[in-house]
């Protein structure tokens, strides 16, 4: 029995998960796994690796490479210069992340390095909110655009990372 059929036969309130939702969650999970395999280190947590990755890549790729993904984050997480409800739902784990994300998303001219780290921190929160803590799978249909944006970001960044050992060509 597939997962959705099982869930719907065992839950008191069945969930109507769109096939596109199921596909995008699977794609996001796979892209995050590739990113983590490429950029993670056994002895360092992923948050530290995101910071190192952002520092390393800031001068190595086109300035406008992630504008679309960054602009999406600004529209979703900032409302009239303030944190939107969606911002709070990210559940950042510390003040540094909150301050960096908010100041970057509201800046008139954020650095590429800060845009990169902010976007990756948001993607990391998607990952954590999907796999850890309280879950409500009935809201997954509302997350398709988040996961699509995250996938696009990771696909653009991986060729600039340490992914060469996975067989990806290095970006030029």
Describe this structure in words.
This protein has helices spanning 3-10, 19-39, 46-57, 67-77, 85-89, 95-106, 112-131, 144-157, and strands at residues 78-79, 82-83. Strands 1-2 form a two-stranded antiparallel ribbon. Helix content is 60%, strand content 2%. By secondary structure, it is mainly α. Helix 2 runs parallel beside helix 8 (144-157), helix 3 (46-57) runs antiparallel to helix 7 and helix 7 packs across helix 8 (144-157). Strand 1 and strand 2 (82-83) form a beta hairpin. The protein has one domain (20-166). The mean pLDDT is 88.
Give a short overview.
By secondary structure, this protein is mainly α.
Number of domains: 1
Identify the overall geometry: globular
Largest sheet: 2 strands, antiparallel
Secondary structure category: mainly alpha
- The overall average pLDDT, rounded, is 88
Percent of residues in helical segments?
Answer: 55-70%
Order of helices and strands: HHHHEEHHHH
């Amino acid at each position: 029995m597939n997962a959705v059929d099982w869930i719907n036969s065992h839950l008191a309130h069945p969930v109507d998960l769109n096939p596109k939702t199921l596909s995008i969650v699977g794609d996001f999970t796979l892209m995050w796994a590739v990113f983590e395999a490429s950029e993670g280190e056994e002895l360092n947590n992923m948050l530290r690796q995101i910071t190192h990755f952002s520092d390393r890549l800031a001068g190595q790729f086109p300035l406008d490479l992630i504008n679309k993904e960054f602009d999406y984050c600004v529209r979703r997480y900032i409302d009239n210069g303030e944190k939107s409800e969606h911002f709070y739902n990210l559940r950042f784990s510390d003040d540094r992340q909150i301050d960096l994300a908010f100041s970057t998303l509201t800046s008139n001219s954020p650095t590429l390095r800060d845009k990169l780290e902010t976007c990756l921190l948001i993607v990391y929160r998607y990952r954590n909110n999907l796999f850890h803590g309280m879950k409500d799978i009935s809201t997954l249909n509302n997350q398709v655009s988040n996961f699509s944006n995250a996938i696009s970001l990771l696909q653009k960044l991986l060729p600039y990372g340490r992914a060469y050992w996975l067989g990806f060509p290095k970006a030029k």
